[in-house]
Amino acid sequence: MATAVTLVSRLQHDGSIVVPNEAYQALGICPGDEITVEIQVVDGSQGITEPSQAELHRRAEMLFDDADHLVREPGIDLSDGLEAAWANGMVDKARRMGLNVDAD
Fold it and tell me: What is the pLDDT of residue 44?
């Protein structure tokens, strides 16, 4: 099941937007379900513009905030030396990429 769908729709005279049945099916949503909608105006000659860096950072922050509230599953047992070495290598790689990783 998809978690996001990109579609094109026209704004109706009453201010509503029609979501095609294909989107309902792909997302597994039903009328009455709460969804988040991001609207971008299509400029006839330009098409849809790329989001700014500030917008990309805002979206990333939202994703990270959502991830911080997820219930995490217990990690693997690191008493196995091979598993522990692999896990430490992943933590080191993440830190080199600039990610703050809690290696409890």
Answer: 58
Q: What is the mean pLDDT of each run of 10 residues along the chain (104 residues)?
A: 77 85 84 82 62 87 87 78 88 86 62
d(CA 101, CA 16): 43
Flag whether 90 is in a domain: no
Amino acid letter for position 79: S
Helix, strand, or coil here: 17?
Answer: strand
Size of the chain in residues: 104
- Return d(Cα 26, Cα 49) in angstroms, integer: 25
Residue whose entry in the numeric block shows the structure tokens 């703050």: 100
CA distances from 50 to 14, 35, 38, 55, 94 (A): 28, 22, 13, 10, 28
Global pTM?
0.34
**pLDDT at position 103, please?**
54
Number of domains composing the chain: 1
**Domain containing 2: what range?**
1-42+49-71
